[in-house]
Amino acid sequence: MGKVLDYVRWRGDLTLDREPFNSLDAGLFAAFAYLPFDSSVKGHTLEAATKRLIQRKTLIHSDKLEAELVNLSDRYKNMHFLDWSHLSQKKPPVQFTAMTIELDSKTILVAYRGTDGSMVGLNEDVDMSYQPEIFGQSVAADYLDKMAKAYPDKKIYTVGHSKGGNFAAYALYAASPRLQDRVIKAYSFDGPGFMKEMYNQIEFRRVIPKMMTYVPEGSIFGMMLDHPERVIVVKSRMKHLMKQHNPLHWEVARNSFVMAPGLSNASRIIRSTFISWNTKIPREKREAFWLAFFTALESQKITEASQLTTNKIRGAIQFSHAYLALDPDARLIANEIISDITATARQYINLPFLSHNEHLKPLGNDSSKGPIVDDSYDGS
């Protein structure tokens, strides 16, 4: 089996009028949103923009390969950038990047970038675990509205990976009914989903049929919250769960993703830990802790997650300094959170190494035919 970039190699000579837009195109553009473009790409073809990007000596190999394949592909190279926008701020935390691409004369695509590794972006992700709505979602909705008004005669796809997938779905929900009718599909790739108090709203349920989510069998971020929309579990050869998060690592065949039997034991156990944390530790306590924790990280001048992971010894020291900088009440909450996560993990620790059928009830890989999980984020 191949991966998404292999699909570009196999089918990249087929323009959209010969082979219609599909989920693999959506996955490619969700990943494409992470490439380091800037607002200067507006008005240029993807061929021209990627050609300039390829010339950068600092471009990492995987990004360069993706740019080169798009640059050479008849399917994508003549598409145009209509917009590229970026916003980053600390309070309220927003790390937002989005691009709009003209797919053909009748259709545009709005792609939202996920978390970029900054502490601001991580803060946003954490906020999603205890806030039904975050400020970045409203920024995403405003961006879709702006692009829709700029191109009033176009049909629209929204796509995104991780937090960007959540933004793609939220923007559809928050749009006016007239704009919602123009959106063909909102694709989320391993996006975290929503809380029940959000998706139980009539306005949200109206657009659920237009939402589509793909998650890898070892999904972590995609299992943080709930998915009332259709969800498909896909295969990935990557053993490391974090690497499975990247849709470019998912298996494809011809013009679609390859479905997995269902979520892995590890994914379902991690989800159980998220749910346990949510039900046992009140929302206000988690909010107070994370506010104190990110303030402590800022006091240590930690602005990127890589500062904690690149040099593990130095990162551990910086992390411990941030922990010690917490006030006593925040430290008690931190200890409570850590204890709860440890207890939940210990309860299930051996399950990933045992028989799936014997220890966890087999579930499906397509939520339209049966549940892919048997629990919900609100504990029911």
Strand and helix layout:
Elements: H1 4-11, H2 23-32, H3 46-54, H4 61-72, E1 80-89, E2 94-104, E3 107-112, H5 119-128, H6 135-150, E4 155-161, H7 163-174, H8 177-182, E5 183-189, H9 196-199, H10 202-207, E6 211-216, E7 230-234, H11 241-244, E8 252-253, E9 256-257, H12 265-280, H13 283-299, H14 306-309, H15 312-324, H16 328-348, H17 356-359
Helix pairs in contact: 3-4, 6-7, 12-16, 13-15, 13-16
Give a short overview.
InterPro entries: AB_hydrolase_fold, Mbeg1-like. This protein has helices spanning 4-11, 23-32, 46-54, 61-72, 119-128, 135-150, 163-174, 177-182, 196-199, 202-207, 241-244, 265-280, 283-299, 306-309, 312-324, 328-348, 356-359, and strands at residues 80-89, 94-104, 107-112, 155-161, 183-189, 211-216, 230-234, 252-253, 256-257.
Domain count, please report it.
Answer: 2
> Major sheet: order of its strands?
1-2-3-4-5-6-7
Shape: globular
Mean of the pLDDT scores? Answer: 86
- Sheet/helix structural class: alpha/beta
Oligomer: single chain
CATH topology of the largest domain: Rossmann fold
InterPro entries: AB_hydrolase_fold (IPR029058), Mbeg1-like (IPR024499)
Protein name: DUF2974 domain-containing protein
Pfam families: Mbeg1-like
Can you give keywords for this protein?
9 strands, seven-stranded mixed beta sheet, two-stranded antiparallel ribbon, AB_hydrolase_fold, alpha/beta, 2 domains, Mbeg1-like, DUF2974 domain-containing protein, about 375 residues, Rossmann fold
Question: Can you tell me about this structure?
Answer:
With 380 residues, this protein is α/β, with parallel strands linked by helices. It has two domains: 4-263, Rossmann fold (3-Layer(aba) Sandwich); 276-353, no CATH class. Helices cover 45% and strands 15% of the residues. It is built from 17 helices and nine strands. It has a seven-stranded mixed β-sheet, sandwiched between helices. Strand 8 (252-253) and strand 9 form a beta hairpin. The longest helix is centred in the last third of the chain and has 21 residues, at 328-348. Residues 348-358 have low confidence and may be disordered.
